[in-house]
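User: structure tokens for this one?
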Amino acid sequence: MAGIQSRLTEKEKKGLLHLVGCKILSLLYKGSVHGYSANVFHNICNQQGPTVVVAYNSSGYIFGGFTAQGYTSSGAIVADEKAFLFRLKGKEEELVPLKIPVKNANQAITDKAELGPCFGYGAGSLVFLSQNTAAVATNAEPGSYVFQVEELHGNDQALLECEVYRAEDIGEMLTKPWRNVNWTSGERRELMSQIAAYKPRLNSVPQFRFLFLGPIGAGKSSFFNSVKSIFRGYVTSQAIAGSDSTSVTLQYKIYNINSEESGKLLPIKFCDTVGLEDKQGSGLYIDEVPNLLRGHVPDNYQFNSSAAIQPDTPGYIKSPLLKDQIHCVIFVIDGSKIEILSENLGGKLREIRRKTNKLGVQQLVILTKVDEICPSLEEDVSDVYRSKIVARKMQLTAERLGIPLCNIVPVKNYSVELELKDDVDILILMAVRQMLRLAESYLDNYSSDTDSTVDYYSEY
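Assistant:
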């Protein structure tokens, strides 16, 4: 391909490298040079390994797809759990990356000689070089991929150019972890002991309160159940968890956890809320957050998605003490969906951060489902800090939410397991320990043991 130039700018290429997670993109095929022919495409791109298709249309969109399996003209429907569609640039002429993971990995790629690059099979498919022309054919019905044609390419299916690159150096793991963790049963016991023995420095606060916030299905309730399982000694659940089109948590619930070994309460209270939803008027009402942080909202309060609690609401706590306040906010984010987090949801999370910052409350992000982010972690999560893709997801989360990377921790909740595992427990326990440390720093706002909160909140 010497002498043939990529249409990508350096900034666009950098964005694509980040999406794919590789170090090198080598141009193999360029439609305007080689011809818009499925046969020519396969002659050049077969047996090249992981490949990226990049298309450009007159509406300004740059979009395409990635497969780790590559092409062979096998005539088969190819499984590829790492395949995805993407939009690199939209009509705004700015980089606005959108990544659409494969939904049905068993039908990720259709590898037929008479077709150009074909992502999916039947419904939910995207075919390049359609009918040997500079065009794409789309079927956005739910299937292998779920996408909106307007979002992906502006419904402009005529191409100005189509390029195919070989993706090189995709290795998943770093040589050394970027956070050091002792993955032993002894470390697990030590973390449990530290948490169980922890005492807030002010006597008026016997237990720290942690407010859990996040999109529906991210794993807020599952995290509480996972922590309880560790200290109970077996996998169990108390908080209602699961997935639905709307939040499965409808009430404000405050949970205590007992140590099975000592029988005593842990120094933590988990405060669970209704999930954040994309559309307005659904899920947690953002203006409710200051009331939650101040401690005005009672246990078992039924959330109203369009109005905040009022002083005349039954159960309203008019004069909350320091122990009733939230001492640290925990954002629970599904790591496998951070790249496709909608702008509306991202805006809600940033607005909550602003309200929380105004009250001086520390925040921690728990990035869940690391085993879905990186399939290599499915059996053993002890390589989580060596995973390149997890590191990228954490960095992206820091950028999207405007929160320091040091305040982001990855976890895997218990969801399908029937028995506890040391590596899973250690990640969860490290998250809890960090929560305690951040909550302790909140008490630094108070120079002495006090039950008064009036002065601190007077300016809000």
